[in-house]
Design brief:
With 305 residues, this protein is of the alpha+beta class. The protein has two domains: 190 residues, Heat Shock Protein 90 (2-Layer Sandwich), CATH 3.30.565; 103 residues. 29% of the residues lie in helices and 23% in strands. The protein is globular and about 60 Å long.
Amino acid sequence: MLARVSVLALITSVAACSSPADMKQAAGAQAEDSPASVQGSPAAPPVQVTPQASAVPPSGNKEMALRASANAPDAQAKANPSAEAVKDRTDLYLFRYNYPAAAAAIPALAAALDRRAAAAKAELVTGAEKDRKVVEESGFPYNPHSFSQKWKVAADLPNWISLTGAFSSYAGGAHGNFGVTSLVWDKQAGKALRGVDLFISAPALNEAISQRYCKQLNLKRAQKSAAAQPDNAGPDAFAECPNVTELTVIPGSAGGRKFDRIGFYAGPYVAGSYAEGGYEVTLEMDKAILGAVKPEFRSAFRAVR
């Protein structure tokens, strides 16, 4: 069973922070936790994502529906066909959730993603109901809450599939939040892991990547920061290189047989201001990173440099 992680609690904690440093701490604390990675509350209606032949179900249908898009016109879509969930919109909330056909083809993984969808929706509805009551009692207009997540394949190997889940949400306040989470599915064991779980420890991985990661991150920072507004952050607010514990770790593959590269995603307020958006750095596997992999998973990795 997947451990419950609160997405909207993270969003609220980021929105409630009073300084960029506080926001960085709140955003990084759960960087590797998947939004709504838990089973839904018993009172929440289940959200079942089921493959459908038709593109769009009847209006108002709150049952999730999928359609394979293997015949998408562009090469990227053909390589990563998606199963799209039809959005559920009410005057209270907007909810969207989908995952790729490659994940839908694995029943246990599809069930796990369905549970995450149900939990995310239940949490969205609960938060929205509470917020609408508060703002209406205060005489202010209510702005509908929202949650959207789209999972994509980062690597589909013989014994593993690595997914990234880009999400965005709005729970009141000046602006919403966004980020990327990871899920690595062990096809043989039939269980989900976080990307960082494949490594001995976060400190071990941090030591293996720090120099290469920070060099690449700073190059991307220099490109972005010149065009982004500072969000009232001082010039040194994000001068340091974030720790692996603040990042989403995304195992990937160029060869298609083993994990041979690792992506590291830093969300808003982790490596830069909100206006700068997220930062993703991908490093090819080297001997140092391979040495940080847990022995039981090392056969799934290959150093390419």
